[in-house]
Specification:
heterodimer, A: mainly alpha, two-stranded antiparallel ribbon, two-stranded antiparallel sheet, 4 strands, B: alpha/beta, Rossmann fold, 6-stranded mixed β-sheet, 4-stranded antiparallel β-sheet, 10 helices
């Protein structure tokens, strides 16, 4: 018996996919640009999906309203960054960062607070009832979207990148947008913190154990419902952060953006294995890369490519790439 | 202080539309090992789950240490000093053996915060726990998982240890190891409630016995008295020990 039996095959899918499309794309510089764009998109989706997969894993809660926190985070960022327009309009990167990080923080706080109310009033009454969870959380998202329209108006709002984050860096002939590199860095940082918490702290241990067998965690004397509320709030806050990053990625925000991203994040958590954070990362990177590669190679099938990817993965591993034990 | 650590009176439990327990009366004396015997489907596991609050009694009362825990939530019941090993062992397969132990030690955040003297004692009872300390628990054999499940339950002192069929599916050598471990646990004064179908296991360990049939306790007394009365064994269990 080996000490660490790490299943590397799903992890190898990411470089494998990237290498497989290289001959199809032809130009290495274009390939680098698309790959970084795909990784950046994947990292943003991971930030959003990581909380959702734990929410499902811990309490079997299907939260179809997760998208509302994405839109909320993005809209809060339009207001916060609007207030700091002197800083976002500066060509100096450090001044831009001083504006963007508070915007992210405020978006996370607001999304987390709304997440707490969402869990209390919408999710808690329907624990253990999947059909009702789907209906009521979708209803919650619709209400949330309408409230966003009441506060910020129904029209799309621009969320321009601060001046210092615009433009590209050049690696040979390959152009890589600065913001996409930043998204990769933020995504890696979030993954690093999550991985540290999950593997090195007692709270993380409880979350991982609860995802496998919540009844046993309770029999050991821990109140898993409190843990779940905490995870739900953190998941909502991360969705808010992802919303800011997605809004900056698209440079525009609409009240419906959450519902649009919802489809992608459910594909990601299904590919990853429900409840698996590592799986969500692999799933998000695959989805991000696939969307960018197919968008370049065959735009007409780009919309369906991620569904195809999910079907292929499930044919290989019906429980997702990193299925959680006991589920 | 009552000599009864745990007492169930007239406990009825329903699971959905099914009426499983039909008025269970059970007393577990303090500091002794009580065996809960009975055929498959007699209600033994349901009784344990009702004690732990995993299923709630629809009628009757459960008292632990004089406190009414009938309607209490599982974490509250566990924190009163009850350790529970379910029939499926409840091992967290994706966690290492060490992480399983840390999780069960409520006062510890890391392995080095677990009482080292107690941990060495547990290692002496179950050497496999030490041997596979950093291995994923899901990779252990059935017997090793059972050892981990019991080791996890005793990682901190508890007043009552409840174990559901610890010998189920285990090889004879592992069963003997388990019997030795429970015998040592008895010497520490821990009160133990064991569900068993392995009669020789029960005979070697039990101080008291309760026999269940059709959701009720139909016999309660000393294990020795049951072991000495073949007629009673046949009438209660359908076989002689």
């Amino acid at each position: 018996m080996k000490n660490l039996d790490f299943d590397w095959k799903p992890l190898a899918l990411v470089p494998l996919l990237a290498l497989l499309v290289l001959p199809l794309i032809g130009s290495p510089s274009t390939w680098v640009t698309l790959t970084v764009a795909g990784l950046a998109m994947g990292m943003i989706i991971f930030i959003i999906a990581s909380g959702l997969t734990l929410v499902f894993g811990l309490m079997d809660v299907l939260n179809f309203g997760h998208g509302v926190f994405i839109a909320l985070g993005a809209f809060v960022a339009t207001t916060t960054m609007g207030v700091m327009s002197d800083w976002t309009g500066s060509p100096e990167l450090w001044r831009n960062l001083v504006a963007v990080f508070p915007a992210m923080l405020v978006a996370m706080l607001v999304a987390g607070a709304v997440g707490l109310a969402f869990e209390c009033f919408i999710v808690r009454p329907v624990y253990g009832q999947h059909l009702k969870q789907i209906l009521i959380t979708m209803g919650g998202m619709i209400i949330g979207e309408e409230l966003i329209k009441v506060i910020w108006g129904p029209a799309q709002i621009p969320l321009p990148l601060p001046d210092g984050m615009r433009g590209s860096l050049y690696f040979g002939d390959a152009a890589v947008e600065k913001y996409r590199l930043m998204a990769v860095v933020v995504g890696l940082a979030v993954f690093g913190v999550l991985a540290w918490v999950l593997s090195r702290t007692k709270i993380g241990l409880l979350i991982r154990a609860g995802v496998q067998d919540r009844e046993m965690v309770e029999a050991l004397g821990y109140r898993i419902k409190r843990l779940f509320i905490g995870v739900f709030v953190v998941g909502s806050a991360l969705a808010g952060l992802g919303g800011v990053m997605w809004g900056l990625y698209q440079q525009t925000v609409t009240p419906q953006m959450g519902a649009q991203v919802n489809v992608l994040i459910f594909i990601v958590i299904i590919i990853g294995g429900l409840g698996s954070t590592g799986g969500a990362l692999i799933g998000a990177l695959l989805v991000g890369l696939m969307a960018n590669y197919t968008g370049f190679l065959a735009p007409k099938v780009a919309l369906f490519s991620n569904i195809g990817l999910m079907v292929a993965i499930l044919l290989w591993r019906p429980q997702g790439v990193y299925p959680v034990a006991n589920r | 202080m009552s000599d009864k650590l745990l007492e169930l009176k007239g406990v009825h439990t329903h699971i959905a539309a099914y009426h499983i327990l039909h008025g269970v009366d059970l007393s577990v004396p303090r500091g002794q090992l009580t065996m809960l015997l009975g055929r498959n489907g007699a209600g033994k596991t349901t009784t344990l789950r009702t004690i732990m609050g995993l299923w709630h009694a629809s009628r009757g009362t459960v008292h632990f240490n004089g406190q009414d825990i009938t309607a209490a939530e599982t974490p509250h019941i566990a924190s009163q000093g009850i350790a529970y090993v379910p029939e499926n062992m409840g091992i967290f397969s994706d966690l290492t053996v060490k992480e399983n132990m840390v999780l069960a030690a409520r006062a510890a955040s890391r392995a080095d915060q677990i009482d080292s003297t107690r941990l060495q004692w547990i290692f002496s009872l179950f050497p496999a726990v030490e041997k596979f300390w950093n291995h994923p628990a899901g990779k252990l054999s059935g017997g090793q998982k059972q050892m981990l499940a019991v080791a996890r339950a005793i990682v901190e002192p508890r007043q009552l240890l409840i174990v559901d069929e610890p010998s189920k599916g285990l090889a004879p050598a592992i069963i003997n190891n388990m019997i030795d471990a429970f015998a040592q646990l008895k010497t520490t004064g821990t009160t133990i409630l064991l569900v068993e179908q392995n009669i020789s296991f029960a005979k070697r360990l039990g101080d008291h016995v309760a026999v269940m049939d059709d959701g009720r306790v139909v016999h309660a007394g000393s294990m020795q008295a049951l072991a000495d009365d073949e007629e009673l064994q046949r009438s209660l269990l359908g076989l002689a020990i």
